[in-house]
Structure formats: structure tokens, C-alpha cells
Amino acid sequence: SRPVLIDCDPGVDDAIALLLALASPELDVRLITTVAGNVPGDTTADNARRVLTLAGREDVPVHAGCTQPLLGPVWRGKYSGASGLGGTLLPEGRAPLAGGHAVDALTAALERAIAEDAPVELCVTGPMTNVALVLARDPSLVRGIRRIVAMGGAFAQGGNRTPTAEFNILADPHAAQIVLHSGAPIVLAPIDVTFQALATPERVHDLRGRAGRVTAVAAELIAFYDRNDPARYGAVGGPLHDPCVIAFLLRPELFEAREANVEIELNPGLSYGQTVGDFWRTTDRPVNATVLWKLDAAGFFDLLWERLARF
Ligand code: BDR
Ligand code: CA
């Protein structure tokens, strides 16, 4: 199975992404690192441990990482509740946090990948602070990365946290810009595609009806997450942003993509944190990202629910 590292800020949709990865035999989840995002850093780390206990996978180490962005204001998520997991739906994590900072743990994992000549896939479902620090401290570590698959950005539609910016990028735009300029192959799942992964009530009902010990609580989490959204987005159902990252690893054929140069607007103002994609090659700036654009939603939910039912 393929070695995978996951940097996340759980977050309901991060939690579902973690469960999808852990349920999938194609992937060898070696390391989970957490970053402040949806909720503060101590809470995202605590939540990742809870998800591992739910999954019965306390063997996977969780290292806590950065608690604030490199620069600029702190933003928090809106849709996962104050606890980040819709209240106290998940039991306490049984395994302790692993010692050592996430940036050091990611560095060690990439050094190992280089030494073994087995580059890893790095999944990022939160602000990119940890990953940016790893690559800023030692840019040569990019050799240990087969590709970065990240949830972030908003292109053809407006943002979900400001009129122009998507949350993960907004929460640390400088970090995102560092990562986009790192030379690592990057696949971005912006809200343009992740809003197609809508967990409608019918789909959640389907999940509830399935076997397995995590389906009921996963359905609870997703239903909580959904409560916040319909009025706001004119669509019924919570968008499962972060699981798109893992689904892309498992079934890339579910997605259509476009290549582009992507830069982040770092100037303060209305467009702070906006992802600027040059899809029509209006500049000479090199392509640095594959941007996921379209999703086969039926295929996505077949995959996701089938995997969640495996626990
Ligand atoms: C992203 O922001 C967070 O709220 C979600 O977990 C997801 O990673 C969506 O904009
Ligand atoms: Ca997230």
C-alpha cells in the first residue's frame, strides 16, 4: 500500500477524510499531524486522537503542530462547532499525543522517504502552516514528496469564508504561497469541486442504513455539519470538502482536473487569501497545480459510504 501522511485540522469533514483513509487498504497512513484551523491547535490534535480511537487505529501517531498562521489574522471554521466535531459525539482519544512537533515529525517522515527512495503522498486538509515550515526549513525535503494533495482554494465561485477566499487558504495564505512555490507536484481540491460532494439527507440516510460500527456516528457528525449550511449555500447537505482529497488518491477517475498557475493574493484587502488561477495561460507563470474541477458525486459517495461501512 502507498505511504501517506495527513496534515489536518479536524473538523467534521477532516474526521470523515481520516476515516476514509484509515478504512482504505490501498493507503498506509504513516503519520497524522494537526494544525490550528477549524478550531484551535490543541483541539484539532485532541480531535485527531478521538478519530483514531473511533477507528481502532491508535497505532498511527498524531503530532500536534502550529497553533497560529505564519502571518496575518487568525480565522476559525464555522461549520464544525466549538468542539470541531459537532459537540461530544466522539469518545476521548485513548492514545496519547506523540512527542515532538508536527514540523519535526513531517521532516523525519520525508527524510525517511528520501532515504528509502519511496516518496510519499502528503494530504493536507487544513491551513498549510506546518507544511510551509517544513519546506521553508529544508526545501530539499520536496524530494520526499510524490505529490501534495490539498483541499483549498476557490476559483470560479466566490469564497466560503470571505467573498473571495476559501477557509484553508485564508487561514494562512503565506503558507499556501510557500507550498505552491516549493516545486512539489500539487493537486488542489478547491470548493469549486468540493461543493459537488454534498451529503444530502438522502445520502446520509443511505449511510445510516449501512452496517459497521462507525456509520451511525459518522452520519451524526455529517448531519451536524449540514445543519449549518443549507440556508447559506442554497443547497441541502453539508459539503464533504476534505474527503475529496482522499477520494482523489483512491479513485482519481472520479475527478476532472485543469492545470494552472496558482498564486495567492497576499495583499491586505478584499481579496486577501484569494487563489488566483491562470487557467487560460494569460501569463508566462509556470503551471504549479492541478486543480480538481468536476466530481462524479454518485461515485464519490458509493466509495465513501462503502469504506466507512468497513469498520
Ligand atoms: C475547509 O475549511 C474547513 O472548514 C474544512 O475542514 C475544509 O478543510 C473548507 O473550506
Ligand atoms: Ca479541514
UniProtKB/TrEMBL annotation:
Kindly give the InterPro entries that the UniProt entry links to this protein.
I/U_nuclsd_hydro_CS (IPR015910), Inosine/uridine_hydrolase_dom (IPR001910), IUNH (IPR023186), Ribo_hydro-like (IPR036452)
Which stretches make up the Inosine/uridine-preferring nucleoside hydrolase domain? 4-302
The transmembrane residues are none
- Pfam families the record matches: IU_nuc_hydro
Please name the GO terms that the record assigns under molecular function.
hydrolase activity
Give the source's domain of life in one word. Answer: Bacteria
Q: Write the record's keywords in alphabetical order, separated by commas.
A: Glycosidase, Hydrolase
This protein is called: Nucleoside hydrolase
Q: Which organism is it from?
A: Roseomonas elaeocarpi
